[in-house]
Amino acid sequence: MNFTVRKMRTPDDYSEVADLLNYVFSEETHADNLALEDSKIPAVGTLGKNELGQLTGHDRMRIVAVDEDEAIIGYGISWRAPWTEAGELNHVLIVNPLYRNQGIGATLYKKLEQWANEIGASKLNYEVHDDQDSSIAFAREHGYEQERHNFESVLELNSFDRSMFEDINNRYPILPLTEIDDPDREQMLYELYKETTQDIPGISGDYFDFHEWRKWTLELPESEPENVLVALDGNKFIGVAHLLHFETANSMYNEYTGVRRDYRGQRIALSLKLKAIELAVSKGIEYMRTNNDSLNAPMLTINRDRLKFKAVPGVYKMVKFLKQV
């Protein structure tokens, strides 16, 4: 078929790009979400190199494939944020299922990798669904290898065994962020995130500063402060479970769970998970989703063995190393 590739135009392309993203996203997104995300990102990139010659800073390239009627049938983005590991870029590539196997994905990918080489990237990260053999094959054909496996799990709340709420460890109270009367509560939550994130398998790069963390955590469109649950030891924040509420699907996503190292082994993570489920049940939520890295055995044990989350297709993190010219 005849198609052309051009740069993404904003805001005109938001709606059609959102439609494409919904082929791969677990929860539906919309043009407004893309516009909000763009409002948080500086329009001008600031790429540079560190003392080792590795790519730093932030920028992105967004392109679309359009048919003869200018309908968008493919989308690609190559991006890095200031906190992305030095040298690396992240890729997303989607083609409308009705138009696959016609060279559209390969053309989009060629332009993304060309840009990556031009700006001096050394490693490309690309996620593909673990149940899509054609996408896995496409990645391998373009020189990618599997680095990690991220499992997704779903819990149907109507059938959840509510007697498990009795297993909540009441030694440390768990409160919504809205009920914590401390003017520094967001800064304290940030410090908790920053410390506990370092122990997640596969985490790399520098952590967000407070301003960026707030934009991409508390200010997400699905985030509400009453759905941020904090475990406390006195006034000290020792654990957190953050839920995102997707109203259209009547679902919640357990975006993050973390417990400080010196408080582990006391069922605090399990208690946070149970409190999150209890909150979701009280709101009449139908199901909850979560993701776990394959190497995060303790959290997988809680989700799959204790709470009975059911496995659904997850994603492989595929990586490719570029030769520097």
Q: What would you note in describing this structure?
A:
The structure is a single chain. By secondary structure, this protein is an alpha+beta fold. The chain folds into two domains: 4-121, 3-Layer(aba) Sandwich (Aminopeptidase), CATH 3.40.630.30; 153-313, Aminopeptidase (3-Layer(aba) Sandwich). Helices cover 27% and strands 32% of the residues. The chain has eight helices and 14 strands. A twelve-stranded mixed sheet has the order 1-4-5-6-7-14-8-13-12-11-10-9, sandwiched between helices. The protein has a two-stranded antiparallel sheet with strand order 2-3. A hairpin with a 7-residue loop joins β5 (72-80) and β6 (88-95). α1 packs across α2 (31-39). It is globular and about 65 Å long. Keywords: Acyltransferase, Transferase. It comes from Paenibacillus motobuensis. This is N-acetyltransferase domain-containing protein. Pfam families: Acetyltransf_1. Residues 3-169, 172-323 form the N-acetyltransferase domain.
Features:
27% helix, 2 domains, Aminopeptidase, 325 residues, alpha+beta
Question: Any chance you could write out the topology, listing elements then pairs?
Answer:
Blueprint: E1 4-7, H1 14-21, H2 31-39, E2 48-49, E3 55-56, E4 59-66, E5 72-80, E6 88-95, H3 104-119, E7 123-129, H4 133-141, E8 145-156, E9 174-176, H5 185-197, H6 210-216, E10 223-233, E11 236-246, E12 251-259, H7 268-282, E13 287-293, H8 297-306, E14 310-321
Parallel strand pairs: 6-7, 12-13
Antiparallel strand pairs: 1-4, 2-3, 4-5, 5-6, 7-14, 8-13, 8-14, 9-10, 10-11, 11-12
InterPro entries: Acyl_CoA_acyltransferase, Bact_Acetyltransf, GNAT_dom
Domain N-acetyltransferase: 3-169, 172-323
Pfam families: Acetyltransf_1
